[in-house]
Amino acid sequence: MNDNHDSDYGVLDELHDLGDGEYDDTGGQSGGDGSGKAAGRRRRVIVGALIAIFAAGVVFAGWHVIGAAVSNNRRAHAAALADCRSARTDYIRTYTSYTPAMSKATTLLKETKSVTDSDTRDRLRQQVNSLRGSDIEELAARECSAKQSRKELSDLADSYGRSRTVMVDGLTTVQYDSQTLQQMVDGMNAQDMRKRLTKLISRGELALERSKGKVDESRRSALETELVSAKQTLATAGSDDTTVLNNEFARLKGIVDGIIASMPLDCHFTQCVALTFDDGPNKTNTPKVLDVLKSAGAPATFFLQGQFVNGSNVELVKRMAGEGHDVGSISWRHTQMHAMPTEQLKKWFADTDTVISKASGKDVTLFRPPDGAWGDALRAQARDSGQAMILWGVDSGDWDKLGADAIAKRVVDGAYSGSIVSLHDGNAATVKALPKIIKGLKGKGYTLVTVSTLLAGDIQPGDVVYGLNDVQRDAE
Predict the structure, then answer these.
(1) What is the pLDDT of residues 220-231, one digit of tens each?
(2) Beta strands in 134-213 (DSSP E)
(3) Per residue in 314-355, pLDDT tens?
(4) Geometric angle at alpha carbon 280, from 278 and 286, rounded to 5°
(5) 278 φ, ψ to 5°?
(6) Residue 366 pairs with which residues in a beta bridge?
(7) What is the pLDDT of residues 114-127, one digit of tens each?
(8) What residues does the NodB homology domain cover (predicted)?
């Protein structure tokens, strides 16, 4: 490129030199006679004309290149505009089906608020909320304009394409679940509504009982009045009075839900699971367990051996209590106690409770018998020490040399609402499994709580507990 330019400028320079010099016809320099001057003037005219022609050629070539570029840009912009409009046409065609389907689903969800035990309705509600949260409806108001840049048109076309895909995928589920839910509602008879209303009345009575002192009395009074009305409706409604029963259900459910929402967390109305850890504290692994729990915002319960609550482990116990975990006892060391003499039982309880309460700053109210083995004498000592005996409903199996994945699977698959899970914080595989356990349980909708939260108001010293609503009362 540069060589060509140098060549062009060389020609101009030669022409310029030719115009400036005065030469005679034989090639020698003139001595200034008239004929030499005339020849010089002719040459300058010729050179000027050549320069003008060359310049015009350069200008013409430049305009030709610019014109070609402009033409290409126009064609590319026109193609982008056409693509955008085509994408919008496909989008609008799908949107035309999407809008009535979403409207029908939204109306159906409003009409079936009283249907609280339907997986189909829950799935439909989640899908509708997900679609409402996207930019589908916003795009319907946008247009592809010739004033937009190629990039803007390309981005808008991509947005139309993505939204159309979302609508197509979502509509399949929305339409299917809407049809299924409608069929279920149409087939629901008065007998079905009676069963559902009876179940709700029981839930309302439990909410009335457990909300005492926790919710404003005027609201509890309104619930009590509505419970009377619901029972009367059950007694008087005819065999085909589905609408009457459904309306009563909706009124009562609104009040019951409001009461529950106003209460502190209560595991009788929330799906809870309590993770528990035995035989610590362990200097190496217990801090790692606490770190995982803290990061996940998951409270738990620790049953400690008294013999380990010393030295730097005292700070671990303080940390447990300070971070909101329950701290209970599993006796002085892991030895089955159901056959121990009374005096030895008494000493082990006293010694263990002393070191734990001193470290945690709290009384010990929860006791786990080693290996879950217990008898009447052990139960009596727990009662005399002011402690309930906490066993478990889900065994993680981490004591049996299982790997982290196996431990996590066993816990997540085995857990149920109100369950107590047995783990060991001194086990390295348990530490590795814990994040998966927490993620898996939360993914199934469980709220992780301490044992004292799970059983709040439900247990007394001497009770033997396997889970929520699974308590053997102490007859004493």
Answers:
(1) 999 999 999 999
(2) none
(3) 999 999 999 999 999 999 999 999 889 999 999 999 999 999
(4) 110
(5) -105, 155
(6) 388
(7) 676 788 888 888 88
(8) 271-449
Orientation of helix 286-296 relative to helix 313-322, angle to 10°? 20
**In this structure, which long-range contacts are made by residues 360-364, counting pairs with CB atoms below 8 Å and at least 24 apart in sequence?**
360/317, 360/318, 360/320, 360/321, 360/327, 361/318, 361/321, 362/321, 362/327, 364/327, 364/328, 364/329
Q: Are 115 and 121 in contact (CB under 8 A)?
A: yes
**Distance between CA atoms of 225 and 434, rounded to whole angstroms?**
46
Domain 272-472, CATH 3.20.20.370 — does that match?
yes
Gap between the Cα atoms of 256 and 242, Å rounded? 21
Backbone angles phi, psi at 373, to 5 degrees: -90, 125
* 3-class DSSP state of 328: strand
pTM of the model: 0.65
How does DSSP classify residue 215? S
Name the residues annotated as catalytic. 278, 424
Q: Which residue has the tokens 């829950």?
A: 122
Alpha helices, DSSP H, located in 304-396: 313-322, 342-360, 376-384
Contact, 304 vs 327, CB < 8 A? yes
Over residues 91-141, the pLDDT tens digits come to 898 888 888 888 888 988 887 876 767 888 888 888 888 887 777 888 888
